[in-house]
Each structure stands twice: as C-alpha cells, then as structure tokens.
Amino acid sequence: MILDLAQQLLNNDFVPILKTSYALSGKIDVFCAGRQTGPNLYCVIAVDADDPEYKHKFERTAGYVGASHSMNDFNVVVLGIFCTEKNSDDLKEYTNETVESFEKINILKWVLTPNGVEVYGHQPDRLLNIRGIIEASLKNGTDAQNIDEVIKKSGEVRNSRIVSRDTLFTYIMLGIIAVIFILQLFDSTQSMIYDYALLPFGKGEPYRIFTCMFLHANFQHLISNMLGLYIFGTRTERYYGKARFCAVYFLGGIFASFVSSLFLGGYALGASGAIFALMGAVFMYSLRTKHLIDGFDLYLLILFAIIGLAGGALITGVDNAAHIAGFIGGCLISLCFKIKHG
Q: Are residues 278 and 303 in the same domain?
C-alpha cells in the first residue's frame, strides 16, 4: 500500500524526503515526500500502521521533517497517512485529534484502508488535491518491487508529459525580436514605428496588429519582454509542442493587439500581449493537470499575472488592455488543446 501511495505522490510532483525499510525483508514501512505550494510545504508521511511501532516511527519522522524545514520561510503541513489493512480502535484513537500546531508546523493524521481515506476528529478531510492522489493509489497500484523502482517510474511519468525536447522556436522568436530591435537602433527617423506600430481601431492598415508584436520602444522594454518570452515560451513549447506554441503566441498576440487597438489614443508596440498569452497557456496547463510546470505551481503563476497586471496599472504608458486580452486569449486557446494528465 505504501509503495502504491509513493508512486502516486511522486507522479504528482512530490519529492522524496525520507524512506526506511525493514532490514531483513526490505519492505518499506515509512515513506515521506514533500511538495512546496505557495508559502506552504506539504509533507506526506506514509506509515505502515500494522507495525506495532507505527506511532514512534511517525513521530520520529515528523520530528525530523519539522526540524529540517521549520527554520525556512515555509509553513509546514505534515500529513500522516496511516496505512492499514484493517482499522483498529488504537489507531482510531491515535488519529482522532484536532490539528496539532507547533509554531509554523501543523500535523494532521488520516487513516488509509483498502476502502479509502478515513478522517477522525476535528481535522480537514480535504487538502489541496492530496486526498484524490491518495485514493488514486488504491485504484492504480504500482508493479514496482521497491522504492527505487517507484522513483524511476515516476521520473518516466514526468518525462512523458514533455512534448518537445527542445525549445528551438522560442529561441528563434527571441532572435527575430533582437534583430528587429537592432534595426530599430539604426532607424534614426523611427520610420519602423510609424509604419508598423499599432494604431487605434478604424485607422486602417490591419497588418499592424501583427507587426507591432516585433517592435520595442527601448532597451528596457526589450529586455523585460525577452525575459518573459524565455520564461513562458520555453515552458509552453516543452509542454504543448512547437505548433501549439506558435498558435498561442501569434493568435494570442493578434487578439491582444486587436483589443488594445479599441482603447488606443496613439501608437502601441511590443510583444507583451503575446507573452501574456503564453503565461495564460502555462497557467491553464497547471490548472488542468495540477502539476508543476518546470518548478512553477498554480500559485506562483497567479502571482506572476497579478504582478504583471498591477505593474501595468501603476506605470504610465503600459498597455494593460493588451496584457489582459493576451492572458485571456492564451487561456482560451490552450483549452482547445488536449493535454496529458499523467
């Protein structure tokens, strides 16, 4: 049961922290894995509750986890999962408690039987998507014989989510934008901006909703957008593939430019609308799969979006209409794609 649970945890972006086995049989009796989500560190400790020493082993492991991580800036949530083939009064009494809190450490205790998760006392029976992961371990057992095989299989599962092994198209876009900016530096009359930047809706020359995506006002504008393109472009290309990367980037950018043109009073330029579309696509991937995206979780992506939009609202001359439209466009476009949930 613990191996099955370990497999599901590792498949869902948890990282092994501690594992112990009986010396002779090699049967694992304690497994601990953690995952950071926002300011919280969730540590799941799976314990063989049919072992007479299960209380001592859990408390020793929980103490180790607390001592190791409480000095960091995390709020540590320790969730004990007591795995048993048949529940007992002693186990019910031990887990029938309120949440134990020690400064930044909170300890919960759930029981896992072949029939599902059982929660006693005044404890939450839902915690992120962890309950679903635990219950999935009962339906989707592993054929691994030991924890090392489990870790290897979870690596294969994570690798299977990657659609594109390289991010060539992202680098091509970065190169094109850089070359065009160099050309702008030699354009003393700024004719490229006058001829290709976005104009208010109704002024004609609809090609500008596309060409404006390649122009930048200054070096700071260029660097901030290239950084955003690298961060979200590489992730979009890796997890969606090259064709879908192009669809999100160009369709999302065009939609952002069109919406922006409805509110413009002058010229507008920059790739930020397309970059916010990429951000929206990465956000939707995390939301739909509940997986980390190369270290980014849902909370961090929300924070990126809030900071980007708030910065646009506070800084004069930033086209927030394009940012909002790009993000929404990226979300909607990505919903048209089938993705791997494994």
A: yes
Q: Let me know whether 203 and 298 are in one domain.
A: yes
pLDDT classification of 313: cutoffs 50, 70, 90: low
Per-residue b/e over 132-159, b at no fewer than 16 CB within 10 Å?
Answer: ebbebbbeeebebeebeebbebbeeebe
Return mean pLDDT, the chain: 87
Give the CATH number of the domain where residue 194 resides: 1.20.1540.10
Please check the confidence at residue 25 and state whether its pLDDT lies above 50: no
Using DSSP, state whether 264 is helix, strand or coil.
coil
Structural domain harbouring 309: 168-335
Q: Which residue has the higher pLDDT, 84 or 37?
A: 84
- Where among 160, 182, 201 does a domain terminate? 160
Contact between 280 and 328 (Cβ < 8 Å): yes
Nearest to 304 by CA among 225, 228, 233: 228
